[in-house]
Amino acid sequence: MTVADPRPQDYAALNLVHSGLLAATAVLARRHGQASAPSVGEMAQLSLAAFSIAKAVSREKIGAWVREPFVEGDGHREAPPVAGGMRGAIGELVTCSRCVGAWSALSLVALRTASPAAGQVATTVFATAGANDFLQAGFRLVCTRANALAARSDGS
Record's superkingdom (predicted)? Predict the structure, then answer.
């Protein structure tokens, strides 16, 4: 670890915030009588929604405004986190799709707990966007392979 690296206490602070929000969500769920496990369908929907948010925040141009204060450069391209302290630790967080996914999942579950109707709408929108990402990737793969086959048959 160099002087510019985030300190362990910076990571600990982020983990404490996440753990505190998780505990608060669990208490809220218990008070609202929502302590049951989500169904398989709800888990799939929440997973797609968290994926969609994580991808947008950590990788897409649309999420550059979130990353910009915490990374070198303008946040529009893949960039390293700023050096040092809490900003560096947050920079690592917002450029890590798995990390943003964990925070997104917590946010979605908290919203669904606090306001089930609003949470369901948000989860549905982001899950649909996540499914669209997979469909677009599949379509791109099929087109690429079809174009490669066409080029190969034209060249023979």
Answer: Bacteria
DSSP codes joined into one string, 129-141: HHHHHHHHHHHHH
Q: How far apart are CA 129 and CA 109, in angstroms?
A: 18
pLDDT (tens digit, 9 = 90+) per residue, 23-56? 999 999 999 887 678 899 999 999 999 999 999 9
Query: Phi and psi dihedrals of 5, rounded to 5?
Result: -70, 150
CB 113 within 8 A of CB 25: yes
Among candidates 18, 16, 13, which has minimal Cα distance to 89?
13
Long-range contacts of 11-18 (CB under 8 A, 24+ apart): 11/89, 13/86, 13/89, 14/89, 14/90, 14/93, 18/102, 18/103, 18/106
> Cβ(130)–Cβ(52) under 8 Å?
yes
